[in-house]
Amino acid sequence: MTSENDKSIFTDRKFWPLFWTQFLGAFNDNVFKNALVILITYQSYKLGVLGPKEMVALCGGIFILPFFLFSATAGQIADKFSKSRLIVYVKVWEVFVMIVASVGFMLESVPTLLISLFFMGLQSAFFGPIKYSILPDLLNDREIVTGNAYVGMGTFLSILLGTIVGGIVIGLSSTLGYLPICAIIITLASIGVWTSTKMPEVKASNPELDFKYNPITPTWRILKLTKKTRSVFLSILGISWFWFMGAALLSLIPPYVKEFLNGDENVVTLFLALFSVGVGMGSMICEKLSFKKLELGLVPIGSIGLSIFLLDLFFAGKIGESTGVLTVSAILSNLQGIRVVVDLFLFSVFSGFFIVPLYTLVQLRTEPEVRSQTVAGNNIFNALFMVVASVFLIVLINLKVTIPQMFLIFSIINFAVASYIYTVIPEFLFRFGCWMAAHIFYRYQVSGKENIPDEGPAVIVCNHISFVDWLLISSGCHRPIRFVMHYRFLKIPFAGRLLKDAKVIPIAGYKENQKMFHQAFETISNELKAGELVCIFPEGKLTSDGEISEFKKGVEKIVEKDPVNVIPINIHGMWGSFFSRKDNLAMKKPFRRFFSKVKLSIGAAIDPGSAKVDLLYDKVKSLGESDKVA
To answer: How many CB atoms lie within 10 A of CB 339?
Structure first.
C-alpha cells in the first residue's frame, strides 16, 4: 500500500487545515452534547412532562432539526461563495454559540443549554455541505477515498475524544463546578477558527447561482436535485438510514447502561467511545480494502454486520443482578459485559464499511457545480431520518418496549431496508458477489489497476478462459462495466439474473440473429457516448484448449464509430478450473483448481487509431502466459 502517499495527503496544506477544522468542530460538538446528556441522565433533569429518557431522545432531535430546516440554504451558500472563506465564518459562529452554552452551564439552565444545542446544530448544518463538497476541490480522484476515510476516521475519533472528555469533565462538576467544561468548549472553538484560516483559497463553484432566501423553495429544489442520479439518491437514502440507526443507538446507550448493565457514567463514556473508534477504524479498513477506489462491494458487507451485531445485542440481554453500580473494570471482567462491548464495537466497524463507499459515490457521481447542494440534500434526508428516529424512540418508550427489544426491532428493519436497496440498485449486490467470489474461491491478484481510467469511456478487450471471466474483471475494476455476452448466458438460472442486473449487453451472431446483432452494437455505442466502460471478448467464444483464439473485428467496428481508447486485459490461472472447458468437464468437477492462483493483468490503454485486432491480440497475449495445464 502507498503509505507515503497517504502521509503526503494528510500533511499537505490542501488537506490538513480541513481535517483539523472538522476534527475540532466534531470534538467540541461531542464534549458539549455528551456533557449535557449525562447531566440530564444522572441528575434526572426534566422539562415539563418529559422525563430523562425522553429528554435524551429530545436532545438528539433538537441538534438535528436545523439540518432539516436550513441545509438547503447552506447548500446554496456553499455553491455560490468561496467554501474556504465560509468555513472561517462558520467557525467564528461556533465561538459565540459556545459562550452562550457556557452561560447555560454556569446557571444550570436546561432551556439555555437546549437553545445552545439547537444553534450548535445550526452551525454544523452550514459546515456539513462545505466539508464534504470541498474535498473533490482539494483532492484528485485517486486521493478522494483516502480523504473520505481520513475525514470519517477523524470525525469519529473526535467523537470518541469528545465523548470521553465531556463525560469526565461533567462527572467532576460536583467538585470542580462547571468552569472546566466552559473553558474547554470555548477554547476548542477558538482553535478551530485558527485552523480554518489556514485553508487554501477555493473559488466559488457556482457564483451565478440564483439564491433563494425562502428556505422552502430551495429545500424542495435540492430534494429534487438529489434524485437526478438514481444511484446517488439511493446512496443518500442508505447514508440516512445509517444515521437513523446511529442516532437511535447513541440515544439508547446512556439508559441502556444505567438500567440494563447497572453501569456508572464512565461505562456510558466507554460505550460511546467504542462506537466512535469502531466507525473510525472501519473507515480506515474500508480505505485499505477498496485499494483507494470506490468499492461498492463493501456496502452489503457493512449492512450484514450491522444486523448481526444488533441482533446479538438483543440476545445478550442484561448483566446479572448486582448489589452496586458497576464500573468499567467490573463490566470488562464480566463475560456478558465483554460480549456487549464486542457487539457494539463490531457494529461500529461494519458501519464504516457501510458509509464510506456511499459518501464517496455521492461525491464522485455529482456535478461540481451542484455538489454542495447535493450534500446539503443528503444532510436534509439525514436530519429527517434522525428526527424521525427520536420520535420513534419516544413512541417505543411509551409503548413500554425494552431497550434490548429495540435492538431486535432495528436489526430486523435494517435487514429489510438493506434487502430493498439491493433490489433497486443491484450494482451494490453485484459488486459484493463478484468481490466475494473472486477472493473466496481463488488466490486472486490484480496488476495494472491504474490503467483503468477514473472516468470517461473505454473499450476493454480480454481473453476468454472461463464462464466467470466477467466476474473476475468486475472484481478487479473499480468502475461498473457493461459486458457484451452471448444472449444464452442470460438464460442461465441465477447467473442470468445477476447478469441482467449488471446491465449486460446481449449479442448474437450475425447469421444467428441480425436484429440482436445490430442492436448490441447500437447499445455499445450509446454506453460509450454516456462515458461507460464496455468489455468484449474478441475471440467470440470460450477457449477449448487454453490458448487465445484469433480476435474477430468487432472491436475495430466499435472504435471506428466511437473513437475511444482500448484497454487490453489478460486472465491467467483459470484454465482447468471448474468454469473452464478443459477436458470437456466444464461445470462438472466443482473443486478443480479451487483456491488456485488467478491473476488479472491490465495493460496500458491503446489509442483508437492503433486498435487493430492483430495488435490487440499481441497485447493481450503478452500480458500473461497461456493457462493451459498439463
So the answer is: 16
Nearest to 38 by CA among 148, 172, 152: 172
Dihedral Cα 251, 257, 263, 264, nearest 10 deg? 10
Domain range for 520? 436-622
Same domain, 601 and 561: yes
- Looking at the structure, do residues 441 and 330 belong to the same domain, yes or no? no
Round to whole Å and give the CA distance between 49 and 393.
16
Q: For residue range 33-90, what is the model confidence (pLDDT) as tens digits?
A: 888 887 776 665 555 556 666 677 677 778 877 877 777 788 788 888 888 888 999 9
pTM: 0.61
Asked, for residue 629, whether it belongs to a domain, the answer is: no
Contact (Cβ atoms closer than 8 angstroms) between residue 486 and residue 508: yes
Same domain, 490 and 345: no
Q: Which of 424, 453, 485 is the last residue of a domain?
A: 424
Q: Which of 92, 100, 79, 91 is nearest to 20 (CA)?
A: 91
Which has the closest alpha carbon to 70: 119, 30, 131, 21? 119
d(CA 381, CA 550): 53
Q: Which residues contact 323 (CB under 8 A, 6 or more apart)?
A: none
- Does residue 5 sit within a domain? no
Distance CA 94, CA 33 (A): 14
Q: Helices 335-364 & 298-316, crossing angle to 10 degrees?
A: 150
Contacts of 515 (CB under 8 A, 6+ apart): none
Same domain assignment for residues 187 and 68: yes
- The CATH number given to whatever domain includes residue 490 is 3.40.1130.10
- Say how far apart CA 580 and CA 518 lie, in whole Å: 29
Amino acid at 303: S
The rounded distance, in Å, linking the Cα atoms of 222 and 232 is: 13
Backbone phi and psi for residue 550, each to the nearest 5 degrees, phi listed first: -60, 140
pLDDT digits (tens, 9 = 90+) for 171-219: 777 677 788 889 999 999 999 999 999 888 888 877 877 766 666 777 7
Q: Check residue 50 and report its DSSP letter.
A: B
**Does 630 reside within a domain?**
no
Does residue 517 share a domain with residue 394? no
Dist. CA 200–CA 82, nearest whole Å: 11
C-alpha cell at 507: 449479442
Query: What SS3 class is residue 181?
Result: helix
Q: What is the CATH number of the domain that holds 401?
A: 1.20.1250.20
Distance CA 532, CA 362 (A): 17
For 373-486, list the strands marked E by DSSP: 443-447, 458-462, 481-486
- Residue at 315: amino acid letter: F
User: Which ranges in 260-402 belong to alpha helices (H)?
Assistant: 265-289, 298-316, 328-332, 335-364, 371-398
Same domain, 233 and 257: yes
Looking at the structure, tell me whether residues 218 and 287 fall in a common domain.
yes
Measured CA to CA, the distance from residue 136 to residue 132 in angstroms comes to 8
Number of domains making up the chain: 2
**One-letter amino acid of 60:** G
DSSP string, 483-503: EEEEGGGGGSTTHHHHHHHTT
One domain, residues 417 and 467:
no
